[in-house]
Write a structure and sequence with these properties.
By secondary structure, the chain is of the alpha+beta class. 41% of the residues lie in helices and 15% in strands. The protein is built from 48 helices and 47 strands. Strands 30, 31, 32, 33, 39, 40, 41, 42, 43, 44 and 45 form an eleven-stranded mixed β-sheet that branches. Helix 2 packs across helix 7 and helix 29 crosses helix 38.
């Protein structure tokens, strides 16, 4: 090896040859790459020019680039250079000053470069180029400055290499920075794209270094005397910096991994995220593109199958309201934190344990979850550098996150479900499974949304390390990172942005809206249709009015209960009136048409207008006015509208309580204090006995303000005072009724009340063993004047605080404070009326109550229950009365005069005749209806008791392509709804089972029942469904198990046919129709032109009483023949030569004991042994089976033939379990009804039968209405009256002064009697005040038996009050009233009296068969009670002995047609009264074991 002298002499002043070590060249690039990667990672975190965090990031990035990527790379690159033979004396020697300068100078230049580029996310060419040039300059400057720090060499540079190196540095730096910021701005900032940018940036450093090195020559100045030490120092510094950079990269990778894992874990939890938007709609995210979020809880613990955490859950409603009023919880955050810290912790971690060892929620689970939610919101506020009150409002939707929980075999896409909303097209079974996130590892994500209005707020958040990005750029990052299971998450974010603007609120003025609700499948709630994306708004259109005047309200009341189609027609008719009415009608019509087009769904046409105008929230301080079109949408009807969606009704109500400046928010604040204060401040306090006793005496008497319980008494919102036995207020102030401060003991600015004055809440303190809560409310109210003990002192001050009301007068010792007669109550008794905050009344409750009116039996009673007057008397509802029978006969006799002539005389008082009478009289016509026997004495009382479309007709229509059959089914399904609307007490839903014995039948009948549902459309009752074999046996245990594979259940209506018929006739009488039974038409009168002009008739009751009956001549413009099977007999009175059109067919039914069928499920056999259909249905506590369909002759009371009875029993036995023997002796009653199938007399083929009804007008003017069935009676009547009005030019007109059938002025009767057909809206007698709970009021007022009370309300509706009042007192402890006329049935004596005085019952058969249904339920029981019925009727009608005997004879004869056994037909009244009937020869007697000896056991 050469010596130092040799080397010096050889190379001093000469160019020293050089070479490079490849490993150090690679290492230099790696070091540069590490520094560049760290730099870009740090720049990616930079979000603003301002803020300490961003300044730190900026300096760190400059250090990483200048100190590591450039400086370290330079020294490692120089270390790779081998001079001569790598003698130590020839190695580079660095000077400390220049080396330090070369370290800091590029950092300073790069600070300028990065500041020039800026932190904005919009890429600027100018800024990026400027930054690239500065970065290149920093690289070049450091290189040549670093070379200048070498003391033992002089460097010579080739200019072309210098230029090339500079260009490489500038170009690569610019390209790398531009690529990086471009990718960053587009949010496609994946790791490999950042790595590519880092490689380019590292290439700029290395490329410049090696290009410059290739053009650099080293001329030796002197030897390096300290070579090892100098290079070692440089390498140590380089290694330290490189290690720091590598450590940073590793730490960043670990942090990213942990953050990803944390986010993945959050996706399985209940999480609260912040969605903050700026004015341009960009959303706040962290540098990774994710939303700031906080975990609330691992999972929501369900307490039952229906306890699913979703937007319908009360807990979410509480959170939703709290987010609108953070002041209500802001002052309790510290107390909540301390309280949660005291709770038991989980085995791992510091979180509170919310589930006990048994897997059940801990005590006060809901309250603790509320606390955790508030703390999560507070933590988010801290992250966002904001106060809690500014953290945002809770969005009105919960998004599902995490693992897909539904099995794929269902083919259900969760994202699609959440995108469309789980309240539309999918079953509640799937929705329920979607909500159980803990079962499938799913989470729930809620959002606090906020819109920033000021630039300084945006700068503040950017300075804190957040970025604002376009929604379209980051929605994918947020969705995938937070595992959000919705396909249209971008649309959800857009909805949040709109939601944050708080623009979804009506403008002041008048609006017309659609209030459509729909029952939820599989739960007990309701959904409501709202605007999509604006879930606080109903679909509505503005009417160009600021308010409604009284004359406009009068017009609106005329349209009450009209559907949309009829309303539009009526508005067109209104345009013919005065100019202002024309203008108003046009405005309403235009708004209605616009709303109809906007909703774009036919279901809207079924909505009905309510004349009750409601006040809805509007922008500003004023409330808007809304005219509502209400509809209870059937559950199987799909409402698909791109502009609408369904949300839970209870959540929609909460929406209406949280609008800005709502009075409900203040009330919610009080509620929150009462609810959470006892929880967060719970402590074990030993209360002194004396204090407890004193406080006990001070408890406020809630019943003193009983008047507050009534809705509408006060505008003040009352909320619950939650019962709490641990707390009691001590610090209070008293105010006068005017609100002036009277007394304020020891007021301190730091006291509890002072804090309340500043709308802040402080932690509690305990004074003297009594805990002080957060709120005090001084409320002075005037006591109801009806209180028996009036107050003798000044206004009583009520203090509502922490669950206890304090009477200040008692605490202050005011004289007379204890004179109310009430004793003390235990500490902690509840004071106010309501238990939950969302029980406040809003317009939602009012409109929902209106919708429920259209659900049979669901609505509340319109007629209020009777009350005791001030004098102690019992006041019944004042129902309108009908004329007596004698008055009706007198009216008929007066018709001979021209002015008294009837517009219409109806012959026949069955369903069709009574329906025609009601239709005509409500059109303003003068009407009379006469019946030879009794109302419903013929076919109308002998039906199958179904209100149905006819599944058998539908099957025939499909297979035979019979359009007439189809029309019959469609018409009947439409009419089915009107039954349930107009007479909910007499009609109800009935599920009917169709058992299946072969699997292949399931799809066939399933398709049939679904088609049946489809035809019903919005008129339907319920949707059909399939039952497995086990479920079918559960529902119908009597079924035969063999060959049973399952069952289909569809819904139809059931009704009490003869009571329905009587109610129709009596309703017509109330409206003014002359209504007379037991009056026979003996002839028809014609004028000189051969046209009918009246009829001759006679009163049959006079003949029954042994008196002569004088003929009665009745003049009428039109004669209607509605005599059913006897149609041809009336037609022959008009024309003896006419051809008969009735083809009578008999239908036999039998009544079996109730144990043959479930009480709430019927059965149909669609394919009996001879191909006919048979029904097996529960009815009035028994079971009805039938019917047959055989040609027959016409008779008034046809007898059921034994062959038909046996056929029915045999068919029934095929479906019942072999353990059940169907016995002939079980038949309690049997009857035969005649169905009048008709042939069209004008048809060419006179043999073909008309499947629906027929309206025919003869040449002389006799209108015949025949055919059809019970379900279509109303449509038959409408068609008949329409034809008569057109043929005879009858003067229909609006009905003025219509009777209040309800018996009260509180409501109207739901129909606008404007001269058109309104029978689909006219409620029958008894319907107005009926509800499913009316029987309870009846029991409590009259002390009648529960079974009797239910029977009365379901047979008479609100007229049950009158019936019960007519019942004889029993002189027993219970029942106090109501003597049964038959021990096994709930018929009572008051019904007989009511039937005589209010329903024109004139014979015992009228009572037993048509007013009560005893003859149809049990013929022998009817016989046994016949003496009692005759006795009561004799008292009411003054019958003599001969009439009583006649009644006995004729009634027993009638009971033969009801299946009374032959031996019973010869019994006498005396035998029945003495109980000496001979039953031993009857079938029933021999069916049972009657001996009194013990059973013999076989040995």
């Amino acid at each position: 090896m050469s010596t130092s002298e040799e080397l010096l002499s050889k190379y001093q002043g000469e160019i020293v040859p050089r070479s490079f070590k490849a490993e150090f060249v690679v290492l230099s690039y790696v070091v540069s790459l590490v520094g560049a990667a760290v730099t870009l990672e740090l720049l990616n975190w930079r979000t603003s020019r301002n803020g300490l965090f961003n300044h730190f990031i900026l300096v760190s990035a400059a250090v990483a680039m200048g100190g590591v990527a450039i400086w370290c790379m330079h020294f490692v690159g120089n270390r790779s250079m081998i001079l001569a033979n790598d003698e130590p004396e020839l190695r580079i020697d660095y000077s400390g000053g220049y080396s330090a300068l070369s370290f800091f100078l590029p950092i300073i230049v790069l600070l300028g470069a990065f500041m020039a580029i800026g932190a904005k996310y919009k890429v600027s060419w100018k800024r990026t180029c400027c930054g690239g040039v500065l970065a290149g300059a920093a690289i070049c400057g450091m290189h040549y400055l670093g070379n200048a720090s070498i003391s033992n060499y002089d460097f010579e540079y080739d200019r072309k290499y210098v230029v090339a190196a500079a260009l490489i540095a500038v170009f690569d730096s610019t390209a790398a920075l531009f690529l990086f910021f471009l990718v960053r701005a587009s949010w496609k900032n994946t790791w490999w794209k950042r790595a590519l940018s880092a490689c380019l940036l590292a290439g700029a450093v290395s490329g410049m270094h090696w290009a410059a090195a290739m053009g650099t020559s080293c001329r030796l100045v002197h030897l390096n005397e300290h070579a090892r030490l100098s290079q070692m120092e440089a390498i140590v510094v380089v290694i330290c910096l490189a290690v720091i950079a590598v450590f940073f990269m590793v730490a960043s990778s670990v942090y990213a991994t942990l953050a990803t894992r944390c986010i993945a874990n959050k996706a399985q939890q209940v999480v609260l995220a912040a969605a903050v938007f700026d004015q341009s709609g960009r959303i706040l995210v962290n540098p990774d593109g994710l939303l700031p979020s906080e975990k609330i809880t691992e999972t929501y613990v369900e307490r039952g199958p229906d306890d699913t955490f979703n937007i319908a859950h009360p807990l979410f409603h509480w959170m939703f309201q709290a987010s609108r009023n953070w002041n209500s919880v802001g002052g309790m955050i510290d107390s909540m934190t301390k309280h949660l810290a005291r709770l038991p912790k989980r085995s791992r971690g510091s979180e509170a344990r919310l589930i006990d060892d048994g897997g059940k929620p801990i005590d006060r689970y809901d309250a603790i979850l509320r606390e955790i939610f508030c703390l999560a919101a507070a933590n988010l506020a801290d992250k966002l550098r904001a106060k809690l009150v500014n953290v945002g409002i809770l969005w009105d939707e919960i998004l599902a996150t995490g693992t897909d929980g539904l099995p794929r075999r269902h083919g259900l896409n969760i994202a699609r479900v959440l995108e469309k909303g789980t309240h539309e097209s999918f079953g509640r079974e799937f929705e329920s499974r979607l909500g159980r996130h803990e079962e499938h590892g799913r989470g729930s994500l809620m959002f606090l949304v906020r819109r920033l209005e000021h630039a300084d707020e945006i700068d503040k958040l950017e300075s804190a390390g957040f970025r604002f990005a376009d929604v379209g750029q980051v929605c994918g990052i947020i969705g995938s990172g937070m595992q959000i299971k919705t396909r249209d998450f971008k649309g959800k974010l857009a909805q949040m942005a709109t939601f944050a603007q708080k623009k979804n609120i009506l403008e002041p003025g008048v609006h017309i809206g659609f209030f459509g609700v729909k029952a939820q499948v599989g739960s007990f709630g309701f959904d409501i249709i709202v605007k999509r994306g604006a879930r606080n708004l109903l679909p509505s259109m503005p009417v160009p009015l600021q308010r409604l005047e009284s004359w406009q309200m009068d017009i609106i009341r005329r349209f009450d209960m009209m559907n949309v189609s009829l309303l539009l027609q009526s508005l067109d008719a209104l345009k013919q009136l005065s100019p202002r009415e024309i203008l108003f009608a046009s405005q309403l019509s235009d708004a209605l048409q616009a709303l109809r087009v906007w909703i774009d769904n036919p279901v809207f046409d079924e909505a009905v207008l309510t004349s009750k105008v409601v006040q809805v929230p509007c922008r500003g301080q004023s409330a808007g006015t809304m005219l509502a079109l209400c509809l209870m949408i059937p559950i199987h009807v799909s409402v698909d509208s791109p502009r609408c969606e369904f949300i839970p009704l209870n959540f929609f109500k909460v929406h209406q309580m949280v609008y800005e400046n709502s009075s409900h928010l203040e009330a919610f604040t009080r509620y929150v204090h009462r609810e959470l204060s006892p929880v967060v401040n719970a402590a074990s306090i030993s209360t002194p006995k004396a204090t407890y006793q004193y406080a006990k005496q001070a408890i406020f008497r809630g019943n003193r303000f009983r008047s507050l319980r009534h809705l509408g008494r006060s505008d003040i919102n009352e909320y619950a005072v939650v019962e709490d036995k641990e707390t009691m207020p001590t610090n209070f102030r008293r105010t006068s009724s005017a609100g002036d401060l009277i007394q304020e003991p020891e007021y301190d600015p730091t006291s509890h009340d002072a804090i309340l004055d500043r709308a802040m809440v402080a932690p509690l303190s305990s004074l003297g063993g009594i805990m002080v809560s957060q709120e005090i409310q001084v409320d002075i109210r005037q006591v109801d004047e009806t209180i028996a003990m009036p107050l003798k002192t000044a206004d009583r001050v009520t203090l509502v605080k922490a669950g206890i009301g304090i009477d200040l007068m008692e605490m202050m010792g005011v004289p007379g404070a204890e004179e109310d007669g009430h004793g003390g109550q235990p500490l902690g008794s509840a004071v106010a009326e309501r238990e939950k905050v969302n029980q406040a009344i809003t317009f939602v409750d009012e409109l929902f109550a209106f919708c429920l009116r259209n659900i049979p039996g669901f609505e509340g009673a319109a007629v209020p229950p009777p009350i005791y007057g001030a004098d102690g008397t019992f006041r019944l509802p004042r129902f309108p009365t009908i004329k007596s029978r004698e008055e009706q006969i007198a009216e008929l006799k007066k018709s001979n005069g021209k002015e008294e002539e009837y517009d219409m005389l109806i012959v026949g008082g069955g369903a069709t005749g009574a329906g025609v009478a009601l239709d005509a009289v409500t059109r303003g016509l003068k009407v009379a209806v006469v019946e030879r026997d009794d109302f419903s004495s013929g076919t109308s009382s002998k039906s199958t008791k179904l209100v149905h479309g006819g599944v058998r007709y539908l099957e025939k229509a499909v297979w035979n392509l019979d359009y007439n059959q189809y029309k019959l089914v469609k018409e009947a399904l439409t009419e089915r709804k009107y039954f349930l609307q107009t007479a909910p007490h007499l009609s109800s839903w009935l599920p009917i089972m169709l058992p299946l014995d072969k699997w292949w039948k399931a799809p066939y009948y399933w398709a049939g029942t679904k088609f049946y549902d489809f035809l019903a459309g919005s008129e339907g009752i319920e949707s059909s469904y399939f039952l497995t074999r086990s479920k079918a046996l559960d529902a119908f245990p009597m079924l035969k198990q063999t060959d049973l594979v399952g069952a289909l259940v569809y819904y139809d209506g059931a009704h009490n046919d003869s009571r329905m018929n009587v109610s129709i006739a009596m309703t017509a009488a109330v409206y003014g129709a002359t209504t007379l039974n037991h009056a026979e038409v003996t002839g028809l009168m014609k004028n000189e032109n051969g046209r009918l002009c009246g009829a001759q008739m006679k009163d049959l009751i006079s003949e029954r009483n042994g008196k002569k009956s004088d003929p009665i001549s009745v003049k009428a413009k039109c004669i209607i023949n509605c005599t059913g099977p006897f149609t041809d007999s009336i037609r022959k009175l008009d024309d003896q030569e006419c051809k008969e059109i009735v083809a009578p067919a008999s239908g036999v039914h039998v009544i079996l004991p109730g144990y043959y069928s479930p009480s709430n499920m019927g059965l149909i056999d669609p394919s009996t042994s001879d191909g006919r259909v048979i029904f097996f249905l529960p009815w009035q506590g028994n079971t009805i089976a039938g019917t047959t369909d055989e040609p027959t002759s016409i008779a008034q009371n046809p007898l059921p033939d034994e062959k038909s009875i046996q056929w029915i029993l045999n068919e029934v036995s095929h479906y019942l379990s072999p353990d059940i023997t169907v016995r002939r002796g079980d038949v309690l009653a049997a009857w035969s009804g005649i169905r009048p199938l008709v042939k069209d007399p004008k048809a060419k083929n006179t043999q073909s039968l008309v499947r629906n009804h027929l309206v025919d007008i003869s040449t002389s003017g006799l209108v015949t209405c025949a055919g059809g069935k019970w379900t279509t009676y109303r449509q038959m009547a409408e068609d008949c009256v329409d034809a008569a009005v057109k043929e005879f030019n009858l003067p229909t007109k609006p009905v003025s002064n219509a009777p209040r059938v309800s018996g009260t002025e509180a409501i109207d009767d739901g129909a606008i009697l404007n001269g058109s057909c309104q029978t689909h809206n006219v409620r029958l007698i008894g319907a107005h005040g009926f509800s499913k709970t009316l029987f309870i009021n009846l029991i409590q007022h009259f002390g009648i038996e529960t079974e009797v009370a239910k029977h009365l309300t379901e047979s008479y509706g609100d007229r049950a009050w009158t019936v019960a009042a007519m019942c004889k007192p029993t002189d027993q402890r219970f029942p106090a009233r109501g003597e049964r006329i038959a021990g096994l049935y709930p018929f009572v004596d008051g019904e007989i009296r009511y039937a005589v005085t209010n329903e024109y019952a004139q014979t015992a058969v009228d009572v037993l068969a048509r007013r009560t249904r005893l003859a149809f339920l049990n013929a022998q029981a009817a016989l046994e009670c016949l003496p009692k019925v005759i006795d009561i009727m004799s008292q009411e009608l003054k019958w003599d002995r001969a009439r009583q005997e006649k009644e006995w004879t004729e009634t027993v004869s009638f009971l033969q047609s009801m299946g009374l056994p032959e031996p019973m037909l010869s019994v006498t009244r005396a035998q029945v009264e003495k109980g000496k009937l001979d039953f031993k020869s009857s079938l029933e007697y021999n069916m049972y074991s009657r001996h009194d000896k013990p059973p013999v056991m076989d040995e």
